[in-house]
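Box 3.1. Reading complex inputs
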Amino acid sequence: MSFLTPRLFSLAKLITEGEVVADIGTDHAYLPIYLAKDGKAKKIYATDVAKKPLDVAKNNIASFGVADKVETILADGIQWTISNEIKLDSCIIAGMGSTSILDILKHDNENIYSYVIAPNTNLEPIRSWAKKMKYFVENEIIIEDNKIIYEIIKINKFAGTKIKNKKDIIFGPLLQREKNNKLFLQKWLEEEQKLLNLLKHIPKKDVKYKETLKKQKIISKLLRRRILINE
Ligand SMILES: C[S@@+](CC[C@H](N)C(=O)[O-])C[C@H]1O[C@@H](n2cnc3c(N)ncnc32)[C@H](O)[C@@H]1O
């Protein structure tokens, strides 16, 4: 399917054979259509809070002949899963900011086994939430799509890698272990530069200065080790 962007394709790769999946904020429903066509997912719920995109989704689903596998739901976030008999193996939340995703995650419940999350902003607040909620990291990917670097995470309630500390929250417990990941290095070199510039414009007495300086130091330390020691 040529309309599946590298980012959406990476999300699809994190779905395991035979899963029951929900795509929250599906918009055009390209991802659910791909998952249905590919035969990977057993059933996909394509949801959106807005009627307009969901109508487009319905049309696309019908055009691709996958209405037997993809069901559309007009709903805000994941509340609809709470009093439901459906058990979701994976719940995808992508293409929104971290704040909106965290709002949706307030309704996390036992009917959802795992989440595949790809914010179009920072993944750090999501990892922080996952640590607090004792989620395990199953997979982490960093990709470039249309000159934007995205981090994607799959977390679940039962098995995987723990998020232990601030370093894990910032860099990801799995991504930081990858040797020679050029995109990872590029992302954090750019972030370091951004923070160094920001520090020039925040008064030193400001609380934000301390926080920014602390983060910049953590990033610079990791980068120095990577570049100098090739750790
Ligand atoms: C930019 S699109 C992202 C589409 C697709 N998920 C992607 O990653 O390309 C965001 C979509 O999320 C929907 N959305 C925003 N907040 C939502 C919420 N709380 N619950 C369900 N859908 C939501 C919007 O209506 C919009 O269609």
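In summary: The CA atoms of residues 114 and 156 lie 4 Å apart.
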